[in-house]
Amino acid sequence: MQHITLGQSDLRVTPICLGTMTFGEQVNEADSHAILSHSLARGVNFIDTAEMYSVPARAETFGATETIIGNWFAKNPGARQKLVLATKVAGPSRGMPWVREGKGMTSADIIASCEGSLRRLQTDVIDLYQIHWPERHVPAFGTLYYDPAKETSQTPIHEQLETLAKLVKAGKVRTIGLSNETPYGVHEFVRLAEQHGLPRVATVQNPYCLINRTWENALDETCHRLNVSLLAYSPLGFGLLTGKYDEHAPTDAGAPQGARIARYESVRKQRWGRPESLAAARRYNQLARDNGLTPTQMALAFCYTKWQVASTIIGVTSLAQLDEDLNAWGTTLSPEVLQAIDAIRWEVRDPAL
After folding, report:
1. What total number of domains does the chain contain?
2. Rounded to 5 degrees, what angle do the CA atoms 201, 205, 206 make?
3. Which Gene3D superfamilies does the UniProt entry name for this protein (predicted)?
4. Strands 12-13, 4-5: parallel, antiparallel or unpaired by DSSP?
């Protein structure tokens, strides 16, 4: 895998990133360390985490993933220098009072969150520091519509950028990014940064997969023209695009019991748990099999080869899953398969938006 540059930054990363939100909930510390070591040995130089992980978010596991990664760094002194490390500051609490008090994301909140992440990760600098979701009200995590009446913004984007600039100037953050953003948000962050000489966002981390291609409805042009890179998360649609739910839905007696969408009701209530998402995934999975591919191979190859994607974030719970996802690199999809994918999307659109 050749390394690619994120946005206009100096960060050079592999086109596959190891996501870690399962560490501390589905995956214990010892197994998490094994996955981190194997990922690095396989050539992946990019890992992503967040202060609110592991998932599903609970007060008891807040910060657990960062702590596990920090302990791995302590046990492997040379590993930190080989990796581009990304983490995220949580936006307004969204019903998680253990993240912070109040409904906003103030300058003091951002600084305190960064300091907490640095301590847990046992590092002096975060290479890519991302805002996990916008401070302002936007449709995200399965919400369909923007509603001005729900606006509760307290910290303007300019003030957020000024705070992030302080962290960059202090040497605690190298580059900044966004997550779960909209075209308006990306434009405003870039416009204000250029207008006021503040750090420019290099990346946006948003969902992108066969059952959620909403990125292609405006954000792809926005980020292409502004030179902001997409970090695609949930490329396997929370497991729906692996085929493991093709015979039994997550709530069926015969469904895989260890999977997140099967174990956690809170996950099933989100976009990935919609019946329409499962129905669409089953169609894509059958298309893969009809063309001599596994569902996982086709779903990942779709992300790995799209011009819109800079790096694809894979989340795993075992070494076997890690190898399967990494081995899908290099898989190409024929024009006929891509046409068939688009034909399915024309019918089902984006059920997991």
Report:
1. 1
2. 130
3. NADP-dependent oxidoreductase domain
4. antiparallel
The amino acid sitting at 117 is S
CB count within 10 Å of CB 308 equals: 17
The H or E element spanning position 320 is helix 319-327
* CA–CA distance, 7 with 30 (Å, rounded to integer): 34
Let me know if residue 233 belongs to a domain.
Answer: yes
User: Which residues form the domain of 180?
Assistant: 4-242+299-331
pLDDT of residue 256: 77
Taking the chain (353 residues) in runs of 10, the rounded mean pLDDT of each run is 96 98 96 98 98 93 97 97 98 82 85 97 98 92 89 93 98 98 97 98 98 97 98 97 90 70 68 92 98 98 98 97 98 98 97 94
Distance CA 97, CA 16 (A): 33
Q: Does residue 285 form part of some domain?
A: no
Catalytic positions, written as ranges: 53
The first and second tokens of residue 253, run together, are 């007696």
Residue 249 is predicted with a pLDDT of 79
Residue 237 maps to which CATH number?
Answer: 3.20.20.100
- CA distances (Å), origin 4, targets 8, 10, 46, 130, 231: 11, 10, 11, 18, 12
Q: Choose among 151, 150, 154: nearest CA to 107.
A: 154
Q: How far is CA 162 from CA 48, 134, 153, 188, 232, in A?
A: 24, 16, 16, 14, 27
Residue 62 makes CB contacts below 8 A (sequence gap 6+) with: 51, 52, 96, 98, 99
β-bridge partners, 311: 231
Would 340 be classed as within a structural domain?
A: no
Write down the pLDDT at residue 265: 66
- Rounded-to-integer distance, Cα 76 and Cα 70, Å: 10
- Residue 252's pLDDT is what? 72
Residue 126 · residue 118 · CB < 8 Å: yes
**269 located within any domain:** no
Burial label, 11 (beta-carbon count in 10 A; 0-12, 13-18, 19+): buried
Burial of 241 (0-12, 13-18, 19+ CB in 10 A): buried
130 neighbors 203 (Cβ within 8 angstroms): yes
* pLDDT value of residue 142: 82
